[in-house]
Design brief:
Low-confidence stretches: 2-6
Helix content: 10-25%
Distance between the termini: 39 Å
Number of domains: 1
Mean pLDDT: 95
Shape: globular
CATH class: Alpha Beta
CATH topology: 3-methyladenine DNA Glycosylase, Chain A
Largest sheet: 9 strands, antiparallel
Oligomer: single chain
DNA sequence: GGGACGATTGAA
DNA sequence: TCAATCGTCCCA
């Protein structure tokens, strides 16, 4: 394993905690993407949402373990990627221990607000599903030495999940 | 096999 | 306000 792979990366232990701990701590971390041509970019994470377990009716795992959702049952530290509205890839970081389906949706990074916009910019697609953030040569997350203040809000686009689950304040935004 | 729908975005 | 666009899930 090269130094480039280890340097600065968050340890898998970071991700194998409850999603409600991990999600706010991802704010102010660097999302790093290395492209095929060797160029790489770093963006601070500015907005995330937590999805927590089969009981969370807004979480895809609320329908149980399927081919699509099985990656959320992995130990934390891998990516869950899916297509929405036929056009946009959503990037999620799986958290928690094995068999606790949880994930953090990355909704915004510095310069690219919106989950569909940032994946388009970073050229993230389905080939990143199940990608391991601790070993991948093309995407990882680094500590930036920041612990920004943040605001919590209800999650976006989950009105179908019922009064309780659509209102839990599991959307986290860096305070401007 | 068919149909409904979605953790979105951008344009009218 | 609404179309684009397709993988996934549910029902038959």
């Amino acid at each position: 394993m090269s130094n480039a792979i280890k340097e600065g990366r968050l340890d898998p232990v970071f991700f194998r905690r409850d999603v409600l701990e991990v999600a706010p701590e991802l704010l102010g971390k660097f999302l790093v993407r290395k492209f095929d041509n060797g160029r790489f970019v770093k963006h601070l994470i500015t907005e995330v949402e937590a999805y927590r377990g089969e009981e969370d009716l807004a979480c895809h795992a609320s329908k149980g373990k399927t081919p699509r959702t099985s990656v959320m049952y992995e130990p934390g530290g891998v990516l869950y990627i899916y297509l929405i509205y036929g056009m946009y890839w959503m990037m999620n970081v799986v958290t928690g221990p094995e068999d606790h389906p949880q994930a953090v949706l990355i909704r915004g990074i510095e310069g690219y607000d919106g989950p569909g916009k940032l994946t388009r910019h970073l050229k993230i697609d389905k080939t990143f599903n199940n990608e391991d953030l601790s070993t991948s040569p093309r995407i990882w997350i680094e500590d930036a030495g920041l612990r920004p203040e943040y605001t919590t809000l209800p999650r976006i686009g989950v009105d179908y999940a019922g009064e309780y689950w659509k209102n839990v304040p599991w959307r986290y935004m860096i305070r401007l």
